């Protein structure tokens, strides 16, 4: 029969690993969904928020929010919008603007209070994002050349999943990520 203290430590170790890998999968899913699916963005944010709450240790996380000025700075942006709601005539537009900032605030709190990743895990998250951008770009090129029997009348209709402007910014970011990974791996051997 195993000692209860040993059982508890083993369970705690597996629980930490479970939450860590759930956090890793949630961030990878968020990176993949940015160029491919607006729906999966919401699902991955919900997964990250649920994991953050179920992980426990909320008191220390709240203290981390209070002590990290970068998180407070991002939360203060929301406070400015909330203060502006007192003076606005267009409440509907103001509420839409506030609701568009909620995922950014939640993500900054989750990222700011959870543990860090190893370089290898960060590399996999970034490569998952780059692969998703390549897939989205491939479908956009296919859309442009009519591979999918869809006729486009304007070049701005080229992107299949998201706005063409968002996709172009993500392509630029993917190029920068690839250059970083190439040079970082090359010079840090």
Task: Tell me what the structure shows.
By secondary structure, the chain is mostly helical. The protein has seven helices and no strands. It has helices at residues 4-36, 38-54, 58-67, 69-84, 91-113, 119-144, 164-187. It is globular, with a radius of gyration of 21 Å. The relative contact order is 0.10.
Q: Which stretches of 5+ consecutive residues score pLDDT under 50?
A: none
Strand content: under 5%
> Overall pLDDT, averaged?
85
Task: Evaluate the radius of gyration.
Answer: 21 Å
Helicity level: over 70%
Order of helices and strands: HHHHHHH
Shape: globular
Count every beta strand, where a strand is a DSSP E run of 2 or more residues.
Answer: 0
Secondary-structure topology with pairs:
Elements: H1 4-36, H2 38-54, H3 58-67, H4 69-84, H5 91-113, H6 119-144, H7 164-187
Helix pairs in contact: 1-2, 1-6, 2-5, 4-5, 6-7
Please provide a brief summary of the model.
With 189 residues, the chain is mostly helical. It is built from 7 helices and no strands.
Considering the chains and any ligands shown, give keywords for the structure.
mainly alpha
């Amino acid at each position: 029969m195993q000692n209860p203290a040993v059982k508890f430590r083993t369970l705690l170790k597996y629980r930490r690993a479970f939450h860590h890998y759930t956090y890793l999968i949630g961030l990878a899913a968020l990176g993949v969904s940015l160029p491919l699916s607006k729906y999966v963005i919401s699902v991955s944010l919900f997964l990250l928020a649920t994991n953050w709450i179920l992980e426990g240790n909320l008191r220390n996380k709240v203290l981390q929010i209070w002590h990290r000025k970068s998180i407070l700075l991002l939360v203060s942006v929301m406070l400015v919008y909330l203060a502006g709601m007192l003076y606005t005539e267009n409440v509907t537009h103001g509420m839409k603007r506030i609701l568009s900032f909620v995922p950014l605030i939640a993500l900054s709190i989750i990222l700011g209070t959870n543990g860090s990743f190893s370089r290898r895990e960060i590399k996999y998250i970034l490569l998952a994002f780059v692969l998703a951008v390549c897939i989205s770009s491939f479908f956009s090129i296919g859309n442009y050349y009519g591979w999918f029997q869809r006729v486009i009348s304007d070049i701005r209709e080229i992107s299949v999943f998201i706005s063409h402007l968002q996709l172009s910014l993500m392509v630029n970011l993917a190029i920068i990520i690839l250059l970083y990974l190439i040079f970082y791996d090359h010079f840090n051997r």
